[in-house]
Amino acid sequence: MAVESSIGKQIREVLATSLRRDPSSIKPEHSLREDLGLDSLMTFELLYDLEKAFDMEIPNDDLPGLLTLDDVVKYVEGRVNPSAKTSTPKSTAKTPAAAKLSKPATPTKAKKTPEATQAKPKPKAKAEIPAKEKKSTATEKAKATSPTTKPRSTSASTKRVAATTAATKKRTAAATPKAKKK
Amino acid sequence: MAPKVVVTGLGIVTPIGIGLNQFWNAAIEGQSGISKIPSFEGLPIDAYRSRIAGQIHDFNPLDYIDEKYANRVDRYAQFGLVAVKEALEDAGIDMEQENPDRVGVMVGAGMGGMMMGEREISHLYDTKKPNRVHPNFIPAITLNSASGIIAMAFGAKGPNITISTACSSSIHAIGQALNTIRMGKADMMIAAGADASITPLVFAGFCSLRALSSRYNEQPTQASRPFDRGRDGFVMGEGAGALILETLQHAKRRRAKIYAEVAGYASTSEAYHMVVPKEDGAEMAKTMKLALDDAQLRPAQVDYVNAHATSTTVGDDVEVRGLRHLFKSRANKLLINATKSLVGHTLGAAGALGAITSIMAMQTGIVHPTLNLDDPDPECHLTGISNQTQEGKIKVAMTNAFGFGSNNGVLILKRYSTR
């Protein structure tokens, strides 16, 4: 294991506390789901704790990239310390907030500072995710080749007619004529 | 032998129409009822991850019901009252002619009176004045306020029960109404589902659960997209649906028009997880099978499925897995649609809206489009799911409803024929 950042250590400790296990038994490469046994609800709880501790927003669209502990640590580091990747000058403002992590229930006092920087780093943080995102779309693509993908119309039985005329005719007959809403 | 139970009246309140005709015309046209949430009682809507919903704008309960009842209850129960009123009128029921002890009410509600609830809670903490909590707070937030006020408004003195199983509540309301009649405890049941909890706290809670769509805040009508690859969560809706169930004999005696037979129902728990269904869909398939068994029907006889399909990534996949599991090759022959693509997920009302949609599909042979299915996700694609209006003869319809708390409910409706 490479030298662990303080953010990484804190995240690992939060995880260890909520999972009631020895922090040293949690490895960066551990998958949140498979290795650590986090189900979706537990994952959202972890994100909730992180959002509070680092006073940040983790958009839903970033979730697919957060598969292992290492993903989460890198993600949070990227968000908290965007200068590591880019030339944005802000960098250390968040450490006081991060320090609160060990007490996840307390809302951070250092709120204002990180909030101001948060809007800017967001797109950059996203830029760190693509590796994983690409992977997941690739798997989806692979699945897309399954036989069920055939066009809807081909196996439509005779009793099924695509929208258009017949449906329109029947519709007017079926539902009591009435001024359509809109 | 248990009596046959039929549906003789329908009533509905939705973001795309109040009243059966308005709803149905909008549904088969594929109208979306999803819009931006205009405001949240002074809270900054921009702070929410999701900022869209299927809301019923400009609803005035007094246009439909006496203020004596309307002003006693929260918005969800007002919706329920309006839906039940329409259903009773549609069924041509004159309560003066009925034995009130033999008419019951079964309501499904997931959240209940949260509008008043949230307002009073925040008011108390703001003012620190317990004596300023509104006297109507408790009667209004109590989850059976809807079933209670419905009984009062229409004089139904039979069994009166509220069922709360989150998103599947009203499928169970209909199913338990069926069973109540089968057991001989009532001749007629008003079965309804209602919810109106697009409120600051509940909505924030669903956002924190990361259950709501957040990608389409600027394109609200595109947000509810069950079975589509671009789906990213459900869109909250609000509304109510009501069905009048009665014994066939009772319906015949009063020469009622008959919409359909309520043929079967099943209720199970996956005993698995608070918010996630068992991934392989086997539990859902089992529930569907049990409902068909209850109806004495085989999977091969099912023509149409009103899917639970909320537009969440996991939920839609699992439901289709369940359908494939049970129906095998027939899964691709079923006509299927997702009513939530039109109105969002109305939680406790969803099962009733699904059942009403199923009945209308059976009556008219028209299956409303599943909106926004632009790029079908192969993980959950079946050939009978379409963004177009479809047509077909439907004799047996299945309505699915799956709820948080590992809860599953399936209802089977059958076309009624005299022979």
What's the name of the CATH homologous superfamily of chain A?
A: ACP-like
Poorly predicted residue ranges of chain A? 86-182
Whole-angstrom Rg of chain B: 20 Å
Radius of gyration of chain A: 24 Å
Q: What's the CATH C level of chain A?
A: Mainly Alpha
Largest sheet of chain B: 11 strands, mixed
List the chains of the largest interface with their residue counts: A-B, 40 and 47 residues
Based on CA inertia axes, which overall geometry of chain B fits?
Answer: globular
Uncertain runs of chain B are: none
Specify the helix fraction band of chain B. 25-40%
Indicate the topology.
The complex is a heterodimer of chains A (182) and B (419).
Chain A lengths: L5 H14 L20 H14 L15 H12 L14 H5 L12 H7 L2 H8 L1 H15 L19 H11 L8
Helix pairs in contact in A: 1-3, 3-6
Chain B lengths: L4 E10 L2 E2 L1 H10 L5 E2 L15 E2 L13 H4 L4 H16 L12 E6 L5 H14 L9 H5 L3 H10 L5 E4 L5 H14 L5 E8 L4 H9 L30 E9 H6 L6 E10 L12 H13 L9 E3 L6 H15 L7 E3 L2 H4 L6 H15 L1 E2 L22 E2 L4 E8 L3 E8 L5
Parallel strand pairs in B: 5-6, 5-7, 10-11, 10-14
Antiparallel strand pairs in B: 1-2, 1-8, 1-9, 3-4, 7-8, 9-15, 12-13, 14-15
Helix pairs in contact in B: 3-6, 7-13, 10-11
Task: List the defining traits of the structure above.
heterodimer; A: 182 residues; mainly alpha; B: 419 residues; alpha/beta; Peroxisomal Thiolase, Chain A, domain 1; eleven-stranded mixed sheet; two-stranded antiparallel sheet; globular
Note down, in words, how this protein is organized.
The complex is a heterodimer of chains A (182) and B (419). By secondary structure, chain A is an all-alpha fold. Chain A contains eight helices and no strands. Chain B is of the alpha/beta class and 419 residues long. Chain B has two domains: 5-253, 3-Layer(aba) Sandwich (Peroxisomal Thiolase, Chain A, domain 1); 266-414, 3-Layer(aba) Sandwich (Peroxisomal Thiolase, Chain A, domain 1). In chain B, the strands form three sheets. In chain B, strands 1, 2, 5, 6, 7, 8, 9, 10, 11, 14 and 15 form an eleven-stranded mixed sheet that branches. A two-stranded antiparallel ribbon of chain B has the order 3-4. In chain B, helix 11 (313-327) links the parallel strand 10 (304-306) and strand 11. The interface between A and B is large, with 40 and 47 residues.
